[in-house]
Amino acid sequence: MVKRFWNDLKKYFNYVFVSAKSELKSEVANSHLSWLWWILDPLLFMLVYTFISSIVFSQKIQYFPIFVFIGLSCWQFFEKTVKQSVKIVSANSHIVTKVYLPKYILILVKIMSNGFKMIVSFSLVVIMMLIYRVQLSFSILYTIPLLLILLVITFACSTVMLHFGVYVEDLSNVINVLLRLLFYMSGIFYTIKNRLPEPYVTILLKCNPVALIIDGMRECMLYCNAPDYKILSLWLIVGFVVSAIGVRTIYKNENSYVKVV
Amino acid sequence: MAEEYAIEVKNLKIQYRCMNKISIRKSLFKLKKNNVEIYEAVKGITFNVIKGQILGVVGKNGSGKSTLLRALAGIFSPDEGTIDMHDHTVSLLSIGVGFQKKLTGRENIYLSGLLLGFSEEFINSKIDEIIKFSELGKFIDKPVKTYSSGMYSKLAFSITAILETDIMLIDEVLSVGDAKFKKKSYKKMKQLIQKEDRTVIIVSHSTETLKNLCDSILWIHDGEIRMQGPTEEVLPEYCKFME
Fold this sequence. Notes:
The structure holds two protein chains of two kinds.
Chain A: H1 2-29, H2 36-56, H3 64-86, H4 88-91, H5 93-96, H6 104-131, H7 143-167, H8 171-185, H9 192-195, H10 200-207, H11 209-222, H12 229-260
Helix pairs in contact in A: 1-6, 2-3, 2-6, 3-6, 3-7, 3-8, 3-11, 6-7, 7-11, 7-12, 10-11
Chain B: E1 5-17, H1 24-29, E2 38-50, E3 54-58, H2 65-72, E4 80-84, E5 90-94, H3 105-115, H4 120-134, H5 149-162, E6 167-171, H6 179-194, E7 199-203, H7 207-213, E8 216-221, E9 224-230, H8 231-242
Parallel strand pairs in B: 3-7, 3-8, 5-6, 6-7
Antiparallel strand pairs in B: 1-2, 1-4, 8-9
Helix pairs in contact in B: 3-4, 4-5, 5-6
């Protein structure tokens, strides 16, 4: 199966690339502010959360705008991809009913287009770090493995969502609520370590991979610390296992997806 | 026989298990119902297509023709039996071919081409020909959602006609576009078909078209083969049956 996955990946990589590119392009073409939205969207959300946290809840966190920005960028990548995966087969029924393609390729298209947006907002983070004169260290290199783990976990969740999304009509409603819950539990605009009592800190940071990754990103970008690599590598393994199961299930069932759509 | 088969289908069965979409509410209230209805659309079909042959498939609505084509295109896997395409490339051409509505015609050409397994360079070398054949002119760089239905089908036809695959599966698209384009696509079709090594399967209700294009006919009735043979033999029988 690994070999088949690899071959399909090679075969369809071009498709994924071109498809993601044209998806981004068409998004841009249909709005007035065009590509500015890729910057404006995270920027405006950051302002909203900064307002709520620092004025309404009067929190004091160093570099707060950057702090929120890092969290939001990771979160939006995860949330959008998972959300879109639920309905991805029926949303692409025009392709799925005409030609064979491994269905998880559709997820990869989303990962690529959402990933591009994430990169754009991370480049904003870098600019803001320069403006705020955040002290840098080599621990910033940890961002690369952290983002890769985020990618694997997102892919794993998406494959599961894709499979069940085909059969269960109202899955998207459930997922929306769950994602919202996860959003508040991921510490996007607060520090889990400081705001919550034990044992919630341990539970949230160890059992919620998104919170763990966001926390790790902040540690290595803002505070020059290394992330918790033991638990992270554990989550990486979990991500790989779930992806493998997901891809396997998709291979096994993908031909009947078309019959349901 | 020394002739080479392009497609071998053995005892093909395709079932639609009525795995209707379930909603969570329903499945909560009816735990364990699981009376899965099975509807068999194709009930054990065996046939071979010789390389270069043009096969017409006829049958009344709902007799499993489109299901058969989709199975041949690899969209469905057979529930029983085997399909051997001998590693030929296949493309399925049917009404309302899948385009991404928000993207432009040009981008859709690339995407369709890549999905059919062609390389980007190959598509680049063919794209002007496709655009010219489709007669879309300036519209090629407009989003597909702005197209009229005729333009839509013209583009679809052009892509499949010019990005030539070894095996073409055609589902009722020979009457595309206006009279002029119809004539042109018919001519192109004939030209494509005349290429020695191209295998074509056509599903159509137009006996006229089939009579002109096909070497042999496969008549499917309720998921089973009713008759199979040269066009001159099967087609009159089918016409008689339909009256």
